[in-house]
Amino acid sequence: MTDISSVARLSEPLKFAYWVPNVSGGLVVSTIEQRTGWDFEYNKKLARIAENSGFEYALTQTRYAASYGADKQHEATSFSLALLAATERLKVISAVHPGMWHPGVLAKFIITADHISNGRAAVNIVSGWLKAEFENFGLEWLEHDERYVRTEEFIKVLRGLWTEQEYSQSGKYYNITDFTLQPAPVDVPGRAHPEIFFGGNSTAAQATAGRVADWYFSNGKDLEGFKDNIAGVVAAAGETGRGIGGALPSLSSSHLPALGSPRFGLNGFVIARDSGKEARDTLREIVEKAHRPAVEGFRDAVQEAGASTKDGKGMWADSSFEDLVQYNDGFKTQLIGTPEQIAERIVEYKKIGVNLFLTGYLHFQEEVAAFGSDVLPIVRELEADLARRNGTELDLSGTPSVNVEVNA
After folding, report:
1. pLDDT per residue over 172-197, tens digit each?
2. CATH number at residue 161
3. For FRET with 151, which of 125, 160, 297, 340 sits at 20 to 30 Å CA-CA?
4. What are phi and psi of 158, to 5 degrees?
5. How far is CA 407 from CA 41, 52, 82, 242, 404, in A?
6. Residue 100 lies in a domain
7. Domain count of the chain?
8. Which range marks the domain in which residue 99 is found?
9. Is residue 394 part of a domain?
């Protein structure tokens, strides 16, 4: 059994998100059948299924050029805005690259999306890993740790422009002078501004998340691996006075709101089947039918991230060929088995501090609905039992209900 971490929030129900398949080819680089579309009509129906299946978030992928078998891509922020307009409760996270966006322009865009959606817009800041995209666009490609210096400034600008009037910030990459964005983001109870997600496995990424992000995202990890990531983020947060349960009073101005302690999201590819053997056989088939040239090309491109860090802890640094068939290491999290086995695995991660699971599937529409009807109720039962055994109660008052009967 897994020990309960000091960062675990046992009274808060886990949140669930799904990868938006806004790029062609699905979420595994394999010729196995994937009943998943990348077009808007498919995704609009999927979003409605998800918000009626207990999912609170969706994350759009940011890609500009064909890679790892994804020949076509829809741009993330515009696709997110369309999904927000097509749904009622789902929060949609737009993935964006510093270096391709100016933070002031993005801040204004997200405010508009926030008003259109009544406070459901969010961002995931991706420091950058695909060197060819930057260089072929004629953009500067920074070395690994320097990308996180820029990202930290980028996030500070977003937060400042969203929360303060006549905001100023002087830095290496961005200089803002007495700037006010009107209107401000929607005033949502319990939310200081649109949520800022940020991910990466390296030491620099963990430190950046600990200092400035609302949410830390990670590629798939086993329990011990993600414990290490959480520890790195918590240590960085503590060094800035942003300890567990505490807050960081100021980023660059005494008027900025206090920043609560970071929360943790983890990627996991879900294969839920009637038996554990059937689920493992499906995983085996995915890997056996991998598109080897595409996976190897992806590996060559991304493992530079790990090699370019001082301690070799970058994204994908320790990923095998089999891991990379799901290009965000989703198999490592091992959400593979019967609904009961997957639910038990999920709650083991909650014990170490995970607050949100970002999930992927072979057949998104049908499997997102099945997750909501078959896996999520078991998760809630296990969470409630875990909370009671540790002297508290699971508070489901703000959790979306499951009602998978939806129309396109």
Report:
1. 999 999 999 999 999 999 999 999 99
2. 3.20.20.30
3. 297
4. -55, -55
5. 12, 11, 17, 44, 9
6. yes
7. 1
8. 15-389
9. no
